[in-house]
Queue: 4 jobs
Job 1
Amino acid sequence: MPLSSKSPQKISVMLFGAFSNHCLANAIEPFRAANTIAGRQLYQWRIFSLDGGAVTSSSGLTIATDCWSDVRPAGDLLFVMPGYGFKDLAVPITNQALRAAGKRFSTLVGLDMGAWLLAAAGLLDGRKATIHWDEFTSFAETFPDVEAVEDRFVLEADLATCGGASTAMELTLELIKRQHSAMFALEVGALFMHGERPGLHDPYQRMSADTLVRSAAALMRRTIEDPLSIPELARRLNIDQRSLEDRFQCETAMTPLAVYKAIRLREARRLVELTRLSIAEIAERCGYRNTSAMTRAYRLEFGEPPRVHRKLCP
């Protein structure tokens, strides 16, 4: 599936003391994984703080940062990531930096308690936003001009907010999906086992299209060697086949069968690149009982047969 041929997206992270390591990793690691899967740099990032130097997380991890005022960064995405003590950070110097950054970045992203700082700077007035649920009521009362919504994340063209570490990864995967494709975002998410197993009591019929597709894709990954029929896949997900197909079409513009095939072929590509398994064994591990059939599908998907691809790998 072709990826965007645009130049790398430029990401800056504005970090504050007592930030969450988990949140930072969940926001950035999917971009790193996207670069790895694509085999080229789709995303670039730098980490800043207002004063530069070492910034210490809530768990004591120290991160080196560049000085915001020295570099005055600009680009596609600005992630604003405060931690504990975030209310004390809403001071004139922070507000000024954020308002100026709003003119230099295409999209502002408030992570964890970042929405609070964006709102304090007047950048969320008249806009929808969310925040870590522990502070949701206080946020709504403090900033009545902001339309506070109880969503896991809010994403618009020039503004995004979310609360907590797990939602940071969801937001990042959605950004990747919108720039490239739903299939590519599923592939990135698979590296983190994102959506691997829903809760035992999650009703599939009431899941959003995105959640259902991630759960279905996780089941597909677990059954690569012996692929399920689409009716059996639907049965295991406790949803009728037509509804499953409709949700895949809505979310990925692909059929479940096409996504299943893409997942199997991407596993084949991973095995071609990272192992010395024979092509016949790779075919079998990826659910192909006929090596020639996999080779034909592989060539159509990636532009060259697996043996040629392997020779080109470093």
Note: Residues 9-179 form a domain with the Rossmann fold fold (CATH 3.40.50.880).
Job 2
Amino acid sequence: MITNGFTYFAVLAFLAAVLVGAEKLTKWKFFKFIPPVVLLYLLTMLLCTAGAWDMEATSAAYGALKNNILYAMLVLMLLRCDIRKILKLGPRMLGGFFAASISISIGFILTYAIMHGQLGSEAWKPLGALCGSWMGGSGNLVAVSEALHIGEADLAYALVIDSIDYSIWVMFLLWAISFAPQFNKWTKASTATLDEVCARLEAEEKEADKHITFAGLLFLIGGALLVSAIGQNIGAAINGVAPWLDKATWTVLVVTVVALVAAVTPIGKIAGAAELSNVLLYMVIALLASRASLLELTEAPVWIISGFMILGIHGIILVALAKIFKLDMFTCGVASLANIGGTASAPILAGSYSGALVPVGVLMALMGYVIGTGGGILTANIMKFFA
């Protein structure tokens, strides 16, 4: 049994490295259905359940690392979100994205209103975290879980849904591509604007400097850690004079604003933010899972069914809005996956239409990072009324 805090964290970091390395080296299709980040959560829970480390002896290391790394990860994640580039997507695609976001939120609210008796009175918290993920990405899920003070075991339910239901939704959307001509004809959609925006974004992408440097990486990680430290102090200070939001929520908001402002400055152009944010994301996920036990996952089937209900409601609303506003299949599909799948899968769906459309998928997914945390917290508080 591990009792040393540094050894405990080192084992978690190495496990994350092994899983990511296995995906890159083996290229198994298995990882398409269960991504390394989800597998990391599950395997770390197995180790926790087996008593691989002393929970009390390692609690100090967990407490010192989790929040500090989490807020630094948020900074790096949001540095990629240049609002000016996102606005270039045009009103129709932005409308499609927000239609998907709103329909996802409605799906969560209606599902919890129906299923709260089976899920439990506190289920609105992990569902809110999952909503943050399905509007943005795994980083948003972690941020919402911190803001809502969600227990690690409860968060595991959200990860189970995120793995199983999300995988099936991706397969469904990839299958639906073949019906794009019929769908576009039914909605009377035009793709002229899409083609124009895509050509412009692709030209900009080719001009961008993507070379990662040592100096750039050091500046990014140092700056992110500094913003994490100062943001927590400011969050605590604001909470003292504005207690209607707790310290964690204020900290998330402060860090988000700082990062979004920095993203439109030369800092946002420094290469490496995406890679570093993913490293920190895996660290945070491993730390969270290290305090959860699989013995507490007794109601997973009900949660999985609830996840499919959420996706069903989301899909029905999005199709209805597509008919009303004449949205094309690409806009609807990528908007849905940009929310639910994030940067990992939205570009794949976009590329399945055309390689030239990949930048559109990336930008729509990045926009999810901006609204995911706030959207998840808002949806959670609406669901709370049904508890």
Note: Residues 12 and 286 are 6 Å apart (CA to CA).
Job 3
Amino acid sequence: MTSSFNVHDAAGYEQLMGRWSQKLAPLFINFAGVSDGEKILDVGCGTGSLTFALAKAADLGEIAAIDYSPVFVAEANRRNTDPRINIRQADACALPFEGGTFDRALALLVLHFVPEAGKAVAEMRRVVRPGGLVAAAVWDHLGGMPGMRMMVDTVAALSESGRQLRARYCFQPMMQPGEMKRTFVEQGLVDVKETQLMIRMDYQNFDDYWTPIAAGEGPLGKYVATLDAAERARTSAAVRDAYEAGRPDGPRSFANVAWACRGITP
């Protein structure tokens, strides 16, 4: 298995993260660059946030998209109406394409869920032509996601299993400053540049924030699903208290920072 991301339902993922990856996608495309006529590969397409944003960004010749999850592939195919886009199930660490096929290979919010992230970068480099570009972005779980740290810090204060969750969550692959850049260089990419991209996550109320997590979506939802009924109720109440922060329930806005990196295939 080459993805540690936990997904049950496409709609639940959209509420948890898809709506935010849609906001991040245009910033990432601007950083990675695209030009008319190019062939682009979207590695780990999810429900299509980057795939469909690419289709709007330029008059591209072809967009290939892959994901490890059949749930994501089915949903992205259901949404697709663009003949330039081809979506299939595949492994980021064993891409089903010939070398030098694409002008660019992009991965949005994927590499931190790939245990062998370096191998995925190597595969992206392999399928991109000389002079083409490889780019990726991952959330900064440790220092750049206060809305999610709010939950993991709360559960860490409640139990040892919560502390273990925090240790895993904050130090997934590619998340530390300079880590992706080093990996890109190690995999032979040149002119490597790293930057930060920021959006805001805006929630209507606590239920808007908590419902997909309570339903078991994503790494935080996977943790909640392991709790018994009493612990789940205790956790929900504690996270609600953190969300509300002494004020009535309602809208909250959190800054969200991603590390982004790009490099050229020699």
Note: The mean pLDDT is 94.
Job 4
Amino acid sequence: MRKSWAEYKREARKREKDRVSAQERKLNTSVFRRTFSDFFEQDNRTGFAVHYLILGRKWWDFSQDDGIEPLDPSEIDEDDKAAAFNSLGKAELVLSVLEDVVETLARDISDFKRNEIEARINEVQKSGLTGPNSKAALDELESLKRMRHKLSKRVRRTLPQTRAAS
């Protein structure tokens, strides 16, 4: 039986996704030489632990109509605490905090990769772009610059609308 266009397209998307993930795994050893944990330690990154001080105990449980119970009440402002008095308000606050966590972690990963790419660009430039391997060095330099440029772009993820007010 013949495949439909949708099946061909689904297979093509899967092949592309597999190719990109294999390429990322290769970059983890060839370009990103320093560990991510060293980056966090040396650059004094705080991560997103402060966000979980806001969420506190049972932030994932919406079965009871109770509000947010932060671990550190000083980390949450009064407006957010007042809005999160019931399970719906708590869910909206949790969504907001988790969006901040995703933004923070994505920025940290991007900064790490950009720093490592910059280090590889400097290494290629210092090694010299002349000699028998000049073509390979230029190709690698262009590839690294494309990666750096791609990291400077923003990605938009769409979420369902949660605001009902007009």
Note: The radius of gyration is 23 Å.
